Amino acid sequence: MTIPAHYANPQVEVLCLASTAFGNSTTTFSYIGPKGREGHVEDIVVDITADMVGTTTVPEVDVGTASGDVSYARYRLGSAAGTGYTAASTPKRAQQEAWTGNPPIALSDFAGHVALNTARIPKDTAFVITLKAGTGGSPAGTARVYVVIKWF
């Protein structure tokens, strides 16, 4: 059996999102991959410039079918559910956490901390990247976000 050329040579794309505040609001970005290719989220990188705060849940980056959906990936930006990463500990990379699995990559030291490659993004289908605010206390945080996707 011959492997199609696009499977042997995946196209890697890094989606760079401008510096965004994770304070009291959620921001979404819609995107679609290259025609005829399905993809998976390889990594999520955050360059934190102001501490991530949420005393109930920390801010997070979600990749899914709609705002807040985590069908394709999730990266919660903290060391515990209510303890956010600091600007002094930046940058943070989902692939560098103490994950298990291959694929999907997961880390559940607290619920849903890291999940990558959980499902393929269907070809020719739009998807949404959500920069979700933390909850509890005075939610805050600012970061530049990079989402790495491999298209097959």
Give a verbal description of the structure:
The protein has a six-stranded antiparallel beta sheet with strand order 2-11-4-5-10-9, with no helix packed on it. The protein has a four-stranded antiparallel beta sheet with strand order 1-12-3-8, with no helix packed on it. It has one helix and twelve strands. It has a single domain, classed as Jelly Rolls. Helices cover 3% and strands 48% of the residues. The protein is mostly beta strands and 152 residues long. It has one helix at residues 5-8; strands spanning 11-21, 27-32, 39-53, 60-64, 73-76, 78-80, 83-84, 92-93, 105-107, 114-116, 126-132, 140-151. It is globular.
Short key terms for the protein model shown above:
152 residues, Jelly Rolls, 12 strands, mainly beta, six-stranded antiparallel sheet, 1 helix
Topology, element by element:
Layout: H1 5-8, E1 11-21, E2 27-32, E3 39-53, E4 60-64, E5 73-76, E6 78-80, E7 83-84, E8 92-93, E9 105-107, E10 114-116, E11 126-132, E12 140-151
Antiparallel strand pairs: 1-12, 2-11, 3-8, 3-12, 4-5, 4-11, 5-10, 6-7, 9-10
